[in-house]
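Quick one:
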Amino acid sequence: MSQPPSLPGVTHEWIDAGGLRTHVALAGPQDAPPLLLVHGWPQHWWAWRFVIEELAAEYRIVAPDLRGHGWTDAPRDGYEKEQLASDLLALLDVMGIDRVTWAGHDWGAWTGMLAALRAPERFERLLPLCVPPPFSTSRDPRTLALVLGYQGPISTPVLGSFIVRQGFAGRILRIARARGEFTEAEIATYDKVFRARPHVTVAMYRTFLARESLPMMRGRYAGQTLEVPTLMLVGDRDLITRDVPAGPYEGQPNLTVERLDGVGHFLLEEDPAAVVAAIRRA
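Output:
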């Protein structure tokens, strides 16, 4: 596979942690407050490029690629989202980082909430972007239909691999962005990684649909409370989060939701200034 895209001030390391060789993009002073930036599907660390450019002088930035994504190793198994949380907590252990502000998009946000429920002592703050919380057991039927409409086909081993090799990641990037457009070069930066590793996309969604979604809807996380100060940002044109209400989240005293006007699912590229501003808040 090719090398990670370059970004001024960013260095790259591959760190063995928890049995996984994880690629990490690093920026900022070593003695600055640690900021963990975790991407979602179908992206990798580079989705945070605009945020990194703005915050590298203020934070010790750690932007890993999730298991199977970007330039992290891509084993055949281990794509349960609790395992992704374990991967990242193990990474922080090896790097000697006790507490972080965790900003995550899509699966990176979901994984952050799971990690915060499990190990709140590792968090200063949590900023999940563009994903409904795991303790929500009620979903808009339109949202469920949308989710199943694309997750179902790509979760099947043969059909899913074929779909991913035909550029499915690029189609999602185009469709789910509401403000601005990805260039062909930007799409290729993401899409080529997933074409080369179709089993990762299949495993991410097959695991979710077959093992995780039903227990979640039955209340696996419903009785748990986030103990970490959490600000969730969602776009008002993101179909995945259209049933997530703005304001204090019922039953979660530490969680507040903000809805951003005119923004779709790919907030990091549609309105990076809003993300930077949220991270900077005390």
